Amino acid sequence: MKNYKKVFVVDDDKIYHFILKNLLNKNGISVTPCFCENGLDALEALKQKISTNSLPDVIMLDINMPVMDGWQFLEEFKKLKADFNLQTPIYLITSSNDSVDINRAKVYENEISDYFLKPINEADICKIFLN
Amino acid sequence: MKLDKFPDSYRYKEKNVFYDKLLSQIPDLIFQMTISENGSIKFPFLSKSVVSHFELTEEEIEQNTIDVLQKKILTEDFHAFLNSIENAKVNLNTWFFEFRCNLPEKGLRWYRVNATIERDGGLLVFYGRVSDTTENVQQELKLKISEQRYEFALEASSEGIWDLDVKTNQVFFSSQSMKMLGFEEKDSIMAIDKWDSRIHPEDIEKYKKDIQYHFENKTPFYKNLQRVQTNDGAYKWILSKGKVIERDTLGNPLRVIGMHSDISRQIEKENELKRTLEILNEQNKRLLNFAHIVSHNLRSHAGNFKMLLDIIEGDNEQDIKDESLIYLRTNSNDLSETIENLKELVDIHSDLKPIKEHLNLSQYLRKMINLLSEEFTRHKVDIRINIPEDLTVHFNPAYLESLLLNFSTNAVKYSHPERTPKIHYDFAIVNGEKVLSISDNGLGIDLEKHGEALFGMYKTFHRHPNSRGIGLFMSKNQVEAMGGRIEVVSKVNSGSCFKIYFNEEL
């Protein structure tokens, strides 16, 4: 079992937040999710965590979000990763099964650990947190 | 008829032989003609070539020369032939005449006679030659026909001709070239600079380069598309083509001839086509984006339904189940909205064309302001309208209402928190198109960042609880369904200006 304690959930869908929380509870995964509704909020929160040296253990990122989408966030994350030697794994969790998005994700293979399609299920959760 | 027999004064046979040889080298017919006081015409000398010139038979050689000529020369020319002799007798200087003969073998031939006249006692003596000018006449005729064809072609094709003397920099412009630029329709010669100064500043560099390349023999001919200012200040698209037709020994150009074609209409049509293609591409892109978003949203909603139902049906506490029910309702509402948006878009693009009517823009604007009066008052919005009262636009009534409502609510929704919101409605005619500008002093949009996605579906650029990312998408679709287009200028923290170009065609 991976020792993930702090998880960043970057997604604008509040229903998904609720479902995810329940899935985690159901599977006995004791983590503290920090919910951000878009990439910009997540980026600002991440910068703050860097300054206080309390980085998240894992980031669950959506693609289609207002203000700053998942791709823009990844671009910014790439810079932070280089500057601060970040090792935080990112899981893309999206309802897009569009080949354009799937191919685009390959560009960020150094940042993205895996790509999951919504709705996220127990098996996916286990893959991220337990395997 | 005396052929090649010199008059008695030439006594010496040797001399005759000498002249005989010389004369045989001359293709012309050499003659001596005398006219006595009583008017009788005789030919004391005719060179041997008279036989071939006029295809004389043995019998004709023996006959009276004038009689033979009468038979050979066309009737309509023979009378003038005799008259010209009479005139020459009066002037006593030279005899010049052109006439035609119809010969059995050679057919119709042209001749020219030149002679000098001297008086010898009671006789007038003509010394002269007759030349066969048929070839020249035919050439001239061909040239004339060719010139006529050329002139006709120029007139019919409405293309202009120019002819540049590189040394003097003087250029000839045909009347058509002058007409293209709205000047008096006549051929003109002027300094090339006069034309060059009318070329659009953006086209000058390429024009100079193109002609220089041809001058340096790097291109087989010169070709350049240039915007040229007409007499009334407007620009026309002129295609100029040419070729150096004369160079000096060093290869430097001396003379260049070319033509001008006014292809403004063609360029206009091309631009129109390009714009239509761009709109189609844009629409296609947006529809793909739409399909993508819809599938994404439907998948999200369906997934959420499943997961929420799993929670309700699962072994969970009641308050969790209750919360799931609330989210079920939210999810259901969101799904309905997605389907509503989808329906709205399909309606815009359905084959049933929405009706276009001539609508009074001011009236529609007032109606919209009334509808939003409460919101405008609450936000103390400063509204300025600069639209002629009687102005109409050709548009669908429902779309116009929705359009004005959408842009106006956006201006309020995304107003700057530190400023009193201002919305200005201005009207102008730009290049013949009716344009409504709606500008505000709001938050503005970073077009460099979001420009491409600005009119995309479910794209939002500000943190506003009511941002749905559907308004601009629908507005653009409505305007384009009416054959128009929307342009936007925006600056973060300064405001935005949306320009709606109306298409007045039916």
Could you characterize the architecture of this molecule?
The complex is a heterodimer of chains A (131) and B (506). Chain A has helices at residues 14-26, 39-51, 70-84, 99-107, 122-129, and strands at residues 6-10, 32-36, 58-61, 90-94, 112-117. Chain A has 131 residues and is an alpha/beta fold. Chain A has a single domain, classed as 3-Layer(aba) Sandwich (Rossmann fold), CATH 3.40.50. Chain A has a five-stranded parallel sheet with strand order 2-1-3-4-5. In chain A, helix 3 (70-84) links the parallel strand 3 (58-61) and strand 4. Chain B has 506 residues and is an alpha+beta fold. Chain B is built from 16 helices and 18 strands. Chain B has helices at residues 13-24, 50-54, 58-62, 65-72, 75-91, 134-157, 175-180, 192-196, 201-215, 264-313, 318-349, 361-371, 373-378, 397-413, 447-450, 471-481; strands spanning 29-35, 41-46, 94-103, 107-120, 123-132, 160-165, 170-173, 188-191, 222-229, 235-247, 253-262, 357-360, 382-386, 392-395, 422-430, 433-440, 485-491, 495-502. Residues 4-12 of chain B have low confidence and may be disordered. The chains are: A alpha/beta (131), B alpha+beta (506). Chains A and B meet through helix 1 of A and helix 10 and helix 11 of B.
Entry keywords:
heterodimer; A: 131 residues; alpha/beta; Rossmann fold; five-stranded parallel sheet; 44% helix; globular; B: alpha+beta; Beta-Lactamase; 4 domains; six-stranded antiparallel sheet; 27% strand
In short:
The complex is a heterodimer of chains A (131) and B (506). In chain A, 44% of the residues lie in helices and 19% in strands.
Contiguous helical run count of chain B: 16
Q: State the distance separating the first and last CA atoms of chain A.
A: 6 Å
Architecture of chain A in CATH? 3-Layer(aba) Sandwich
Largest interface, with counts of residues having CB < 8 Å to the other chain, equals: A-B, 21 and 29 residues
